[in-house]
């Protein structure tokens, strides 16, 4: 990221972001809202070094004492939130002003509105049954927020709010996705086994296929146990179980959470 342009953007945003409770962390602004959400606005330079884009992140915090109890949504592109696609700006003064204007006048009101677990759920609920495909970036913030999720955190969010029916919908989608990925990966490895002439590499592909099947079966077993617990509404240890299938490092996140207490 061009340091001169980044500095100009920060100068334009300095007072606004400070009033909104954001702190600067390198190339991004971060804040914790209502001890429930961790939000960030991140500037990312292109690999070619001529352009930059802006990533938006919204993470749900369930319990600060649970190290892995975080509902982590993947980042969104600033342009996609407004249905403009994956926008990259060139390093110019005009770009710095434009980006600062969009963040101040359009993005911050959205982030201020998306301030609790319930509000996040309310925003994405209409897309619970949506199967992500090529429509990404063609709708609005609600769809982008939904598509930015991974199944684990979305399931945890539904359970946190006792929306068990939708938790099951998301879990069934997760199970189907896992099955499809396992089948596709296994088919690819089988093809490599058939086409590889070298016995040494053929043996490696065979081993990888066996590991793929075992890992997939273990994951499906855990997900089916979770499904049974959700059906019984016995969810006291579900967050810990979900984190066995997807673990995230919370050191930086916890730091900002404790600073706001």
Structure report:
The protein is α+β, with helices and mostly antiparallel strands and 261 residues long. It has 2 domains: 3-149, no CATH class; 164-245. It has 10 helices and 7 strands. The chain has helices at residues 3-19, 78-81, 93-113, 117-124, 141-147, 151-160, 164-195, 199-231, 238-245, 251-259; strands at 23-25, 28-33, 37-45, 51-61, 70-72, 76-77, 89-90. Strands 1, 2, 3, 4, 5, 6 and 7 form a 7-stranded antiparallel beta sheet that branches. Strand 4 (51-61) and strand 5 form a beta hairpin. Helix 6 runs antiparallel to helix 7 and helix 7 packs antiparallel against helix 8. The radius of gyration is 21 Å and the shape is flat. It starts with a helix and ends with a helix. The model is unreliable at 64-71, 134-139 and 247-261 (pLDDT under 50).
What's this model, at a glance?
With 261 residues, the protein is of the alpha+beta class. Helices cover 57% and strands 14% of the residues.
Defining key terms:
261 residues, alpha+beta, 7-stranded antiparallel β-sheet, 10 helices, 14% strand, flat, disordered C terminus
